[in-house]
Design brief:
By secondary structure, the protein is α/β, with parallel strands linked by helices. The protein contains eleven helices and nine strands. The strands form two sheets. The protein has a seven-stranded mixed sheet, sandwiched between helices. Strands 1-8 form a two-stranded antiparallel sheet. The chain is elongated and about 65 Å long. The N terminus is likely disordered.
Length: about 260
């Protein structure tokens, strides 16, 4: 049998131990006590975040993949009928058909898969996730650079870094600090549904690296004069690196080139 520390590493378990952080994440996930959401928690662990989430939700589905922790969680919330402890992998869950929110202390090794699950769930309104700080900073443009995933999803989802958490707020402590990542589905998308195909095509081409620059990449699908005009409209230098272009300027490029 694997030792607890070995199992924790295998499941990427770093249990949240800081109450102030748990309360902060819960407030972000459910800011209005009068309108309590349906909440799904990723990796309930020992229940540190489950408890404040339970106080702020009308119904909470707390997923835990480690079978040793499930009985402990069920005992802890036995007198809280709106908390449902689900034994199993969150990624295997079927998204609710009604609007819902996601919150959780995400296993660092599974962050990308969990984020993808959230982005493709039609009913998701928002997600509040504790991730590696580097991941949260990269996805939210905090380094002054933007990633393909963030730009591609920007018309429908806003990405925001909502805080930083010391690695010593976890047991056992991970090697790096954590970030609080907020992903919010926009009530009104920035582009009409019919424009999303051309948006994806433009962004994917821009990030392809073909030609050695964003300007050169876009010229593979558009005349140089149109690309030049689009760059002027977006106030971009032709030599700008693709990662330096903000989502707002991508929207201006799309407006010019998809017309």
């Amino acid at each position: 049998m694997a030792r607890p520390t070995q199992r924790a590493r295998t499941l990427s378990q770093n249990f949240l131990a800081d109450r102030a952080t748990a309360e902060r994440v819960a407030r972000l996930a459910a800011p209005d006590r009068r309108h309590r959401p349906l909440l799904l928690e990723v990796g309930a662990g020992k229940g540190a975040l489950t408890e404040p989430l339970a106080r702020r939700s009308r119904e909470l589905h707390a997923y835990e993949i480690d079978p040793r922790l499930v009985p402990v969680l069920r005992a802890r919330f036995a007198d809280t009928p709106h908390v449902h402890v689900v034994a199993g992998d969150f990624l295997a869950a079927r998204p609710p058909r009604t609007p819902f929110s996601v919150a959780g202390n995400v296993p660092f090794s599974r962050t990308a898969d969990i984020v993808d699950w959230c982005l493709t769930a039609p009913g998701l309104t928002d997600a509040t996730l504790l991730t590696q700080l580097e991941y949260a900073r990269k996805r939210t443009g905090d380094y002054g650079r933007w990633t393909l995933l963030t730009v591609r999803t920007w018309p429908r989802h806003e990405w925001r870094l909502a805080g930083r958490v010391s690695r010593y707020g976890f047991r056992s402590a991970p090697r790096v600090d954590a970030g609080i990542l907020r992903i919010e589905r926009r009530r009104t998308p920035l582009l009409a549904d019919a424009a999303h195909r051309s948006w994806h095509d433009l962004v994917d081409l821009g990030f392809s690296g073909v030609g050695g620059s964003l300007h050169a990449s876009l010229r593979r699908a558009h005349p140089r004069r149109r690309v030049d005009a689009a760059f002027r409209a977006a106030r971009l230098d032709p030599g700008v690196l693709v990662g330096e272009v903000t989502p707002e300027r991508w929207l201006r490029l799309h407006e010019e080139l998809a017309a």
